[in-house]
């Protein structure tokens, strides 16, 4: 605990007690966000039928550990059977069920499910103002997301908010404290812009330039914003990104059980691998099988001075080297998080 600030901050170790299933049930979406990481060429274009969703959910059960599912898309509420899939997950024994949404809440999803089934509805918003958010996520998306949060809170759902930090919106992160407090959001997840999907190809810039912030900008803005929200009673999680001297590097692909499932049957263990056909597992005839080597699993074992191997391969621009050629810091696993909790 840090008594002078009145909140708790801790690095969240990879959970050795839980299995997390990030289930993309379709890739279709009504928006075209500048930083969208969904890549239909690699992830498929189909909308998974509900009976197949059920069989794939079954593949992770029963676990000796708790199993959590996060339904994602594309926009998962565009799936007409999302409520039914969520209810099935709960009945089948999933310990928690989360829906990530852009806030449009299609198919009257709030009327078809209940807070007893859904632990969290997680809304993506990338600005404290419509001007900033809509420049990234599309015209009208701020208003719809704010309305969506209001409706979910009014119906008694627990809500969280995902804010993806980039050069286009870091200036408004401080202003989010008042907004999330007013909205009654329970948790905030601050994300770092990934160099994947649209943001990796530069295709994003139909909506204006968007890029990762520097290490200095990240460190000067994000932890302080998280603390400000925690003071208002909101738990905030953000990626560690940069490791300090002496901090342990671990690859979640080796020590944790996270599964990123896509409609074409690919199953990845590392989100940074998702733009490439190197998935370590796949659904074949509704059975979860290991794919032939070489695949992402071989990369997890490589021990390099830069820390995360995939980061070194796909986004080396965030590493800097001293005159001796040694990295000045290591990049943490993208799934290693800092958590700031209210006291
Ligand atoms: S980031 Fe999410 S809401 Fe935006 S286009 Fe991609 S899937 Fe849709
Ligand atoms: S982000 Fe890096 S460290 Fe984390 S699972 Fe992927 S390869 Fe491993």
Question: How does this structure look, described?
Answer:
This protein is of the alpha/beta class. 28% of the residues lie in helices and 22% in strands. It contains 12 helices and 15 strands. The strands form 2 sheets. Strands 1-15-8-7-6-5-4-3-2-10-11-12-13 form a 13-stranded mixed β-sheet. A two-stranded antiparallel sheet has the order 9-14. Strand 12 and strand 13 form a beta hairpin. Helix 2 packs parallel to helix 3. The chain is globular and about 60 Å long. Bound molecules: iron/sulfur cluster (2 copies).
Notable characteristics:
disordered N terminus, binds iron/sulfur cluster, 343 residues, TIM Barrel, two-stranded antiparallel ribbon, alpha/beta, 15 strands
Give me the secondary-structure topology.
Blueprint: E1 7-12, E2 18-24, H1 40-43, H2 50-58, E3 66-72, H3 82-92, E4 96-101, H4 109-112, E5 120-124, H5 130-137, H6 141-154, E6 159-165, H7 176-183, E7 187-192, H8 197-201, H9 215-231, E8 235-239, E9 242-243, H10 252-255, E10 257-261, E11 266-268, E12 281-284, E13 287-290, H11 296-300, H12 309-314, E14 330-331, E15 337-342
Parallel strand pairs: 2-3, 2-10, 3-4, 4-5, 5-6, 6-7, 7-8
Antiparallel strand pairs: 1-15, 8-15, 9-14, 10-11, 11-12, 12-13
Helix pairs in contact: 2-3
State the secondary-structure class: alpha/beta
By CATH, the architecture is named Alpha-Beta Barrel
Most strands sheet: 13 strands, mixed
Got a strand count?
15
In the CATH hierarchy, what is the class? Answer: Alpha Beta
Helix content: 25-40%
């Amino acid at each position: 605990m840090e008594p002078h600030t009145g909140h708790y901050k801790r690095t969240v170790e990879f959970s050795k007690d839980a299995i997390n299933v990030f289930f993309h049930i379709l890739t279709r979406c009504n928006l075209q966000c500048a930083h969208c990481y969904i890549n239909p060429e690699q992830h498929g274009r189909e909308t998974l039928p509900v009976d197949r969703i059920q069989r794939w959910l079954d593949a992770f059960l029963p676990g000796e550990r708790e199993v959590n599912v996060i339904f994602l898309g594309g926009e998962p509420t565009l799936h007409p059977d999302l409520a039914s899939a969520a209810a099935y997950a709960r009945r089948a024994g999933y310990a928690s069920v989360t829906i990530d949404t852009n806030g449009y809440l299609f198919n009257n999803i709030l009327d078809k499910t209940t807070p007893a089934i859904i632990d969290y509805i997680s809304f993506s918003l990338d600005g404290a103002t419509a001007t900033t958010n809509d420049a990234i996520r599309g015209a009208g998306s701020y208003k719809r997301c704010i309305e969506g949060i209001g409706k979910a809170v009014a119906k008694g759902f627990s809500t969280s908010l995902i804010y993806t930090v980039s050069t286009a919106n870091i200036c408004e992160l401080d202003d989010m404290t008042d907004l999330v407090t007013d909205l009654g959001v329970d948790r905030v997840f601050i994300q770092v812009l990934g160099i994947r999907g649209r943001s990796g190809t530069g295709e994003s810039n139909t909506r204006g330039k968007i890029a990762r912030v520097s290490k200095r900008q990240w460190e000067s803005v994000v932890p302080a914003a998280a603390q400000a929200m925690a003071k208002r009673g909101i738990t905030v999680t953000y990626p560690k990104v940069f490791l300090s001297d002496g901090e342990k590097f671990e690859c979640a692909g080796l020590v944790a059980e996270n599964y990123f499932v896509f409609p074409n049957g690919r199953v990845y263990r590392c989100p940074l691998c998702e733009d490439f056909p190197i998935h370590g597992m796949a659904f074949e005839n509704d059975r979860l099988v290991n794919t032939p080597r070489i695949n992402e699993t071989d990369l997890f074992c490589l021990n390099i001075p830069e820390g995360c191997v995939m980061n070194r391969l796909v986004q080396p621009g965030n590493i800097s080297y001293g005159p001796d050629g040694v990295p000045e810091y290591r990049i943490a696993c993208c799934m290693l998080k800092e958590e700031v909790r209210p006291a």
